[in-house]
Amino acid sequence: MNFHPVRLGIISALREEQAGLIEIMEDVVTTTRGMRDYVSGRLWGIECVCVLSRIGKVAAAATTATLIEKFGVSHIIFTGVAGAADSRLRVGDIVVARQLVQHDMNAEPLFPRYEVPLTGLSHFYSDQILSKQLFNAAQEFIRTDFHSAIADHDKQQFHLLQPLVYEGLIASGDEFIAHDEQLRKITDKLQDVLAVEMEGAAVAEVCFEFGIPFAIVRTISDGANEDSPVDFVQFLEKIAAHYAYCIVKRFIAINQGERALT
């Protein structure tokens, strides 16, 4: 097998979802394009480019395309938070995307519901190798790092006991889902969706069109309804930031051991 140099793009929508990574990056070079700072360097031995996409599908798509075209990344991962769409999921659980769909894509009657026009696809599959590595990294984080990485009073505040890692469908749309009625409109038609967010499917579509392997991991921050007790900003700072840092670190360590990015 021929191994090619890896240049990993790491995208998050918000600063807290990527906290700590840039601070420990070596040989840092920052380049501004399209009102975003692309920070290049080395993380735990791998060439990386970290960037904040901001919120929404257009922002995520523009950022992803720039990472590929301007910065020559060979693989992309997206870390961030999401709302639970499945009653099994609890705040603090982790979802790794097996596939992604835009829940607000509707070009009927010209194309079937959810299908992205002229692609023939409604669901975009993440790279199996990257997703397996990300899933294993998340599980290793829960087993090994969770109890030391998250302060006890923060576990109590957000009712975190023993988080679980899931793999499945994530739905993206340009709408923050904060009410049961909004969520039901999605889950009535996409009954196997695990989580809802605002960027992942756009990243997936761009990566598909450019032929770039990608994987997406989301920490559940709320129940995507009005009953969610979580203080979103505090959750980002106290929980999601630590999750993302530790999972990316574990992911790179697994990759370095398996040499599976080809």
Describe, in plain words, how this protein is organized in 3D.
The chain has 262 residues and is α/β, with parallel strands linked by helices. The protein is 35% helix and 28% strand. It is built from seven helices and ten strands. It has helices spanning 21-24, 57-69, 128-149, 152-157, 180-187, 200-210, 232-258; strands at residues 7-12, 26-33, 36-43, 46-52, 75-84, 94-102, 123-125, 165-172, 193-197, 214-222. Strands 5-9-8-6-10 form a five-stranded mixed barrel. Helix 2 (57-69) packs parallel to helix 6 (200-210) and helix 3 (128-149) crosses helix 7 (232-258). The longest helix has 27 residues, at 232-258. The radius of gyration is 17 Å and the shape is globular. The model has no long low-confidence stretch (mean pLDDT 93).
Mean pLDDT: 93
What is the number of strand segments? 10
Distance between the termini: 8 Å
Content of β-strand? 25-35%
Give me the Rg, rounded: 17 Å
Largest sheet: 5 strands, mixed, barrel
Estimate the helix proportion, in percent.
25-40%
Order of helices and strands: EHEEEHEEEHHEHEHEH
Helix run count: 7
By secondary-structure content and strand pairing, the structural class works out as: alpha/beta
- What's the shape? globular
Task: Please give the order of strands in the largest beta sheet.
Answer: 5-9-8-6-10
Uncertain segments of ≥5 residues (pLDDT<50)? none
